[in-house]
Amino acid sequence: MILKSIIIVIYSTALILIFMYALAQLNLLFNYLSAQKKVCKSPKFDLSNTHETPIVTIQLPVYNELYVMERLLENIALIDYPKNKLEIQVLDDSTDETIETTAAQIKLLKDSGLDIVHIRRTNRQGFKAGALKEGLEIAKGEFIAIFDADFLPQKEWLKCTIPHFKDPQIGVVQTRWGHINRDYSVLTKIQAFALDAHFTLEQVGRNSKGHFINFNGTAGVWRKQCILDAGNWEGDTLTEDLDLSYRAQLKNWKFKYLEEVETPAELPVVISAARSQQFRWNKGGAENFRKMMWKVLKSKNISSKTKVHGILHLLNSTMFLNVLIVGVLSIPMLYIKNEYAHLRPYFYIMSFFVVSTVIFFICYWTMYKRTYGGGIKNFIQYIVMFFTFFSIAMGFSLQNSIAVLEGHIGKRSEFVRTPKFNINSIKDSWKGNKYLKKNISFNVIFEGLLMIYFAFGMYSAFIVGDQGGDFGLFPFHLMLFFGFGFVFFKSLTSKA
Predict the structure, then answer these.
(1) Does 108 fall in a domain?
(2) pTM higher than 0.70
């Protein structure tokens, strides 16, 4: 009886937290829709006036980028901005043969008249944050644009972003990520689906009402003064971008998000690369919750609503833990429901939380429609994509929950960079990539066991109770079975 009560309490708590997160997403949807009616009237620099054109430094933090380094430098060299007002820093922590090839390409660009420097460190202390901080010490620019190695900004990118800094309170301008290989596979499609929701619903929804948003680590510009005022880059979390973003906004700096400016980038095409990226992002989110929660709650400079959104934002990654808890406990709950008839009214009340899924469905449809348009055909495609995305996202919940727990307890781990592939079309292949891990994570075994566990959950729907079964949780267990099965088999087979 005690065990039954514990299971019910934990299950209910996780469902309530998921429902609260869904309500926050719904609020962001309302914010997003109202933001579409607003016209930006903020002052802007006139870049046709050389006296009003500020000096900009572009920082390119790179580490062993054999497959994309040449593409990156060729693209950055095309940026349209006065050469006497532009500096490019290649912050190169590489340890492989790319050091020489990068140096040779930089020399050619330098000879062409570009102000570009190759900055090498003797160690990787602080990883990406450490490289950015070291480059900042000698940066000429008043504004610092940052691009990861797999990003390809359009030539007009600086002219679309820098003018917004005429408002002296703006510390960051962030742009929306695009996806050059969105349709490469199911894996890239669901990653694009999730990121599109973040870069529309969440970023616009928060920014339009003055709530905290985050610089996304790349495809954005910082005011150098803002970085220094906020305490500079720190490498004590795996998401240094989120960390500095919150420290800056707690110091009353404003962030400007530009949904209309798209910066194309490459999505991971192999599940091991997606896993390492997801692990870093989710663990970093939990680390920042641990680091920033009390600072947000104690701040006298922000509203109560901004605090609520800020805490839920920092708890984003913890939703994976709640989903895993609900999934694992749903099977014992199925048996409890059918064994104790007096508890059935409770379960009918708790089934109300199917509303959470409906809320997510509505929010994501609004974002999907922005990209692909409306109509019956696109709506049907959306339904398939939504449930595919939700299933596979749940399939990642075990490894992401481990990441979250490590972040919350303060377990430190190395910054593992996501391998890049230079994949631009379906014809391009990732096989033979030297940076891919050859070993399989131990977690994969448990993901396979969870796949079997949820197959048992589907079987249980036919045998519980005395009324010919109970199929209320069958669709949920089917999605979990598919999600963990996808992650399990892809992890076993997607090797170079």
Answers:
(1) yes
(2) yes
